[in-house]
Amino acid sequence: MTDGLEPGDPLDRMVTLLREPVPIAPGLARRAGERLRRQRKARVTGGMVLLLLIGLFEAAVHRQPSGTSITFAIAAPTVRSIALVGDFTDWRSDRVQLERTRSGLWQATVKLRPGRYRFAYLVDHEQWRADARAASAPDDFGRPTSVVTVVGN
Fold this sequence. Notes:
With 153 residues, the protein is an alpha+beta fold.
């Protein structure tokens, strides 16, 4: 009982409820870690590099039980490296590296299950680029990202 209140008084019940521990929502630690990773990546800035960016987005569909093969490609003949980042890589730049072809086209093929995915290209570990040929959807930090939708069977 709260000082000066009778048992069963509405204010006494409210105070009792407010004193009870509140359970932490499932997945809160994971979501907080993801937000911290996104914030760290948002701080990544780099010098301006002249970059001829011709976005090429093509979906090569090869239906297989483990997912649909999607080819991500970007033309950038003067850069040193391009990583594919997205919600399917947990926005980590060390998971999918695009490979350079002789013509200066960079590409990687990834298997994705049906769904909607946001992605971007991280050029030379500094520049965040959306795919010019895909639908755009800025992320929570205002960085340009693109969207790809993988259709199920």
